[in-house]
């Protein structure tokens, strides 16, 4: 653990040492101390603060080639625009994942499970050797994923379980603050997915076999469009309208508009998340003839969003996290067979 704050080093160390799967081999007070201890202790994983005296986190990553065995790295980022931009740079420099550092003590104590889940993911998630870039083709089907607190490590598992590009576009709406954090998430997911992953852009067409992460600060509204061959598809429009359920992007905005465009050719899935966002959108997808599923409660950090979908009769299937990717593939194959018949 690398952090110039004694409080953070002590707190994170205590969190991890409660779990028998972790052994904390050392802590470092800045980047120079970290590089020395990486060579001496050869850790598997490192948590790395960004802003530190003498040598900051980005500079540590730039010097990774100087270490015979550099650990997988989880960045701990502050909830600021500056923190978001620096996190994006850290991901470009080879950091494996990132986590937002709460501003207050109470918030920090609440990151326990999410921190452990992320670190365990780093030991198990494999990066695909060669990414399959699908040909540019307008998607006639869409998969919409919604998540909030506890969602990012689950997205790792879901995407890594899909072993070939989907016959659909996938749009992920994950609650995150503005400032570059959704761009960093897209960079992270692009490493674990066999499909190309990018942050959404205003006005771009949804393409088959691509994954789009809704840009923070905007609702990703799906509108219908026709290509030059007259084929119907969807387009992402960024809307700066008022937050819904106190969040922007809101899952409800993406799911409900996506249901209108894709009808029975879309799938909605909700992972971990607090609050009611997504319930209305899931109900809209199911009402339009689309397929809906949620992750089971025991695999989620928080089950509020999934519960909201249940209260609106928007859920067909409940599955363990590890089975959701495979079920999405099966549902899309069923849609293909129905069209052919």
Record the SSE blueprint.
Elements: H1 6-17, H2 31-41, E1 45-49, H3 57-62, E2 72-78, H4 81-92, E3 97-101, H5 105-109, H6 112-124, E4 142-147, H7 151-160, E5 169-174, H8 181-192, E6 197-199, E7 211-213, E8 219-226, E9 232-239, H9 251-262, E10 266-270, H10 279-287, E11 291-295, H11 304-311, E12 317-319, H12 321-340
Parallel strand pairs: 1-2, 2-3, 4-5, 4-10, 5-7, 6-7, 10-11, 11-12
Antiparallel strand pairs: 8-9
Helix pairs in contact: 4-8, 6-7, 7-8, 7-12, 9-10, 10-11
Give a quick rundown of the structure.
The protein is an alpha/beta fold and 341 residues long. The protein is built from 12 helices and 12 strands.
Keyword list:
three-stranded parallel β-sheet; 341 residues; Rossmann fold; 2 domains; alpha/beta; 38% helix; seven-stranded parallel β-sheet; globular
Notes on the protein architecture:
The chain is built from twelve helices and twelve strands. It has helices spanning 6-17, 31-41, 57-62, 81-92, 105-109, 112-124, 151-160, 181-192, 251-262, 279-287, 304-311, 321-340, and strands at 45-49, 72-78, 97-101, 142-147, 169-174, 197-199, 211-213, 219-226, 232-239, 266-270, 291-295, 317-319. The protein folds into two domains: 6-124, Rossmann fold; 142-340, 3-Layer(aba) Sandwich (Rossmann fold). The longest helix has 20 residues, at 321-340. The strands form three sheets. It has a seven-stranded parallel sheet, with helices on both faces. Strands 1-2-3 form a three-stranded parallel sheet, sandwiched between helices. It is an alpha/beta fold. Helix 3 links the parallel strand 1 and strand 2 (72-78). The protein starts with 5 loop residues before the first helix and ends with a helix. The mean pLDDT is 92. Helix 4 (81-92) packs parallel to helix 8 (181-192).
